[in-house]
Amino acid sequence: MSLVILSEHLLSINPHKNIFLSSISIAIALAMTYNGSSGMTKNKIAETLGIQEKSLHQIIKANADLSRKLLGSDQEKIILANSLWIKEGVILKDLFKRNISKEECR
């Protein structure tokens, strides 16, 4: 539902422009957020993504495998531009940093 609201908002700002929302990018961004969340927020993200029965390791591996397949295709060219921006002064837990690092996801 929130994607519908977002797309309607974007269309109201630029009614004569094409809008593309990447479900893959949104799912990967939510998975990165899930990795650092807890409590009700974590539960709601898991519910939204349908990953309640998956371990964090399974989620990270599945996203890394999907990214590799998409980026490694000879027939199609897909560029993913997800990133994580951290407010200066915020200290991240080591496990979170390892889980979102490129090395861990390869």
Task: Please outline the helices and strands.
Blueprint: H1 2-13, H2 23-35, H3 39-49, H4 56-71, H5 94-100, H6 102-105
Helix pairs in contact: 2-3
How would you explain this protein's 3D organization?
This protein has 106 residues and is mainly alpha-helical. It has one domain. Helix content is 59%, strand content 0%. It is built from 6 helices and no strands. It has helices at residues 2-13, 23-35, 39-49, 56-71, 94-100, 102-105. The radius of gyration is 16 Å and the shape is globular. 4% of the residues are buried. The model has no long low-confidence stretch (mean pLDDT 80).
Mean pLDDT: 80
Distance between the terminal alpha carbons, to the nearest Å?
32 Å
* Biggest sheet overview: none
Query: Can you tell me the overall shape?
Result: globular
The tally of beta strands, per DSSP, is 0
Counting structural domains, the number is 1
Q: Report the helical percentage.
A: 55-70%
CA radius of gyration is 16 Å
Count of discrete alpha- or pi-helical segments spanning 4 or more residues: 6
Features:
106 residues, single chain, mainly alpha, 6 helices
What's this, in brief?
The protein is mainly α and 106 residues long. The chain contains six helices and no strands.
